[in-house]
Specification:
CATH class of the largest domain: Alpha Beta
Number of strands: 4
Structural class: alpha+beta
Strand order of the largest sheet: 2-1-3-4
Shape: elongated
Number of domains: 2
Oligomer: single chain
């Protein structure tokens, strides 16, 4: 393949789609594969994936924009998600978000100029008993204060 998806990824997508009675049913797992390889899902990848699965690229775009786990822009080396659900909000997640915005110099949905951090606010991390919490990369951190969050950030490469 001469596009944005590598030959190996295209083969993995085709193999995965073949396991489903309808190839379009493999859309979400295939999007995860694309994002795992590229780090995000650019429009060119949506078009190629649509071709591989035999579905219009607009269906790909609908899924990518609907599910918050898919990124349409490159993310930083560390992806920070701040929970803004009621439990976390009542326990101070707003203070965590303010600290991150000030420290990183970005708003939610943005990546630092050096490409180190991407900041995102999410509706719920499912860790209410440890509110307020954040997810950094794939590690949950709960019962945070702005100061304990600073310590975690200082420990990242």
């Amino acid at each position: 393949m001469s596009g944005i998806l590598s030959d190996g990824l295209a083969a993995r997508i085709s193999g995965l789609a073949a396991r489903y009675p309808e190839p379009s049913a493999a859309l979400l797992p295939c999007l995860h594969l694309v994002q795992a390889e590229l780090g995000w899902i650019p429009a060119a990848a949506e078009a190629e994936l649509g071709g591989l699965l035999g579905i219009p690229p607009i269906r790909i775009r609908e899924a990518v924009t609907f599910y918050s786990m898919f990124r349409r822009r490159p993310a930083g080396r560390h992806h920070i998600r701040v929970c803004r659900a009621l439990s976390c909000t009542l326990q101070g997640s707003g203070d965590l978000g303010e600290r991150l915005r000030a420290r990183l110099g970005v708003d939610p949905g943005q990546t630092t100029a050096d490409g180190r951090f991407t900041l995102e606010e999410v509706e719920c991390l499912g860790n209410c008993e440890n509110a307020p919490c954040v997810l950094i990369d794939f590690e949950e951190h709960g019962r945070l204060t702005p100061e304990s969050l600073d310590e975690i950030l200082e420990g990242l490469d």
